[in-house]
Amino acid sequence: MSAPATRRPVLTEGPIARTLLMFALPILGSTVLQSLNASVNAMWIGHYLGESALSAISNANLILFLLLSAVFGISMACTILIGQSLGARNIAEAKRVVGTSASFFIVVSVVIALLSYIGTPWLLQRLGTPVDSLPYAVPYLRVIFIALPSMYFYSFLMMSLRGAGDSRTPFLFMGISVLLDIGLNPLLMFGIGPFPRMGIAGSAMATLIAQSLTLFALLGTLYARKHFLRLTGAELRYLKLDPQILRTLIFKGLPMGLQMIVISSSAMLMMRLVNNYGSQTTAAYGAANQLWNYVLMPAMAIGAAVSSMAAQNVGAQLWDRVNRIARIGVLYSLLLSGGLIALICIFNRSALNLFLPGDGDAMQLARHLNIIAVWSYMFLGVTFVLFGVVRATGAVWPPLIILFVTTWLIRPPFALTMIPAWGSDAIWWSFPLSAMISMLLAVAYYRWGGWRDARMLSAPIGAAK
């Protein structure tokens, strides 16, 4: 159940370790559900449609991640602005942010979905998708692009609620969405009962239906429960774009979105290198990526929780709590990510067997590359948590620069330089190398950088308008 309208979640009070954990767990649960959904879909596709189809969704998901990253920064800027506003006890400011952000997301999502649908073959060709995977990837992506507006707006609502200190409501509705998606997936793929047989496009159609239904259910629930951030009556004027808030969303959100684009575009380049070794290596890499997603979940959840929690404390000017939030967040990330990495190394073959047949060449490749690269996600965990803290003040450019240096100026050049000597192993070793350097730079910026002096809005968050 979400917090009643008369009781606003407060992240500026109480014991930090417990508050952070209780706030992060639903975020982690949401992330687990998302990856579980993707993994179940990959299991159906990999086992029943073959390695070429699994390779297709590996390539398609990279493109989808890139497009979601395009608005990730705007969502994060919205989360931080709402958190700072509520920390400063300025509800009207938070509603202005919600209104401007909602209008912006509606327009941008429709434009991106239309352009992406038209350009689907071009996008896949630029990625170097294997020829035998293209017949699967094109229909899958085109249905996903139809679902993109629902995905964008649903993501915006979840991030807004988290900025307001509520991570349980997004978790509840994520669970509903995933159950719908998982349940509809085989029905639409294989034409069970009254459902049409759509093949791999059926997997994407299940996502479209689940996301759309859940989005409308979430909106209806927020208004039925009279959530304190809902817009009613005269407040609907906040849907008109506020120039100051829009500038902040764009100029602060753009670098945060670029962080994800830098990561995803680098991943696309690495995927292109992997694709050069054929569909079996691509399938092995895709299966390992499914496991890596789970390893990264705790760091992503802690990083998101830390950012929302730090934003409210920044708005309230409680800097000692901000520092303690960072330390506890890093500890949680190391413990959770490290535990998962250890389990994956112990049960390496069994875990990969969920996505790949146990007797194929792809399985042997996946086991090998997994042991080399999975450890990099412990380093990335620390980086994401520290970035979550510093961006809560509005310091958004240094994290972007750090990620660009490590994912573009270190990872691909290292792989390309060493491929003649090491073959595909050069690709796998580039991951832990770049992740370790990223962590060291993030720690250095947190310790000695000027992030505490950064601002989101030019005017004080608590200033009356």
TrEMBL record:
Q: Does the keyword Metal-binding apply?
A: no
Places the protein is found: Cell inner membrane
| GO CC annotations on file | plasma membrane
KW Ribonucleoprotein (keyword) present:
no
Task: Tell me the keywords, alphabetical order.
Answer: Cell membrane, Membrane, Transmembrane, Transmembrane helix, Transport
How is it placed in the membrane, per its record?
Answer: Multi-pass membrane protein
So where does this one cross the membrane? 20-40, 60-82, 102-120, 140-159, 171-192, 198-224, 245-271, 291-310, 330-349, 369-389, 396-414, 426-446
User: Out of the domains of life, which is the source?
Assistant: Bacteria
Q: Name one GO molecular function term.
A: xenobiotic transmembrane transporter activity
- InterPro entries membership: MATE_fam (IPR002528), MdtK-like (IPR048279), Membrane_Transporter-Flippase (IPR052031)
PANTHER family in the record:
MULTIDRUG RESISTANCE PROTEIN YPNP-RELATED
What is the name listed in the Swiss-Prot or TrEMBL entry for this protein?
A: MATE family efflux transporter
Q: Which organism is it from?
A: Dyella tabacisoli
